[in-house]
Amino acid sequence: xxxxxxxxxxxxxxxxxxxxxxxxxxxxxxxxxxxxxxxxxxxxxxxxxxxxxxxxxxxxxxxxxxxxxxxxxxxxxxxxxxxxxxxxxxxxxxxxxxxxxxxxxxxxxxxxxxxxxxxxxxxxxxxxxxxxxxxxxxxxxxxxxxxxxxxxxxxxxxxxxxxxxxxxxxxxxxx
Length: 175
Description:
Blueprint: E1 17-25, H1 27-32, H2 36-51, E2 56-59, E3 74-81, H3 83-100, E4 116-121, E5 141-147, H4 152-162
Antiparallel strand pairs: 1-3, 1-5, 2-3, 4-5
């Protein structure tokens, strides 16, 4: 067998997008309705239309009486997009979704970390895949775009080259 040699990272390498993770919490919705199976199916179907693949159902690990939570109850949905699906989602996000957000003035710099960008949406209705008459139960949504960048400046440059606009306010100071 040939020896494995340590690969050196290219200092000229540009950061890439590795994945997009979509999350939603459905615990509050499940507690408010009596027909939980039907609501879970509706939210799963809508979430599947947003991501283009079947979501993973996240269940609770333990019971908490204060929140009316039982072990094994569904409390969230998650989709991890990679490759072409991730790039398609980002393309739709930049060109269709962000312009539809009310009073959009750019993404806050606090949403950007060293290698990821986290965006939160109060309602899933801003996505064009969801028709308003099909949306019986509105739910919030979080999208996290993960990159291979090493610094926050590299990540910001990558996201700006994609077309994501950041707000003019940088860390509380006006430009």
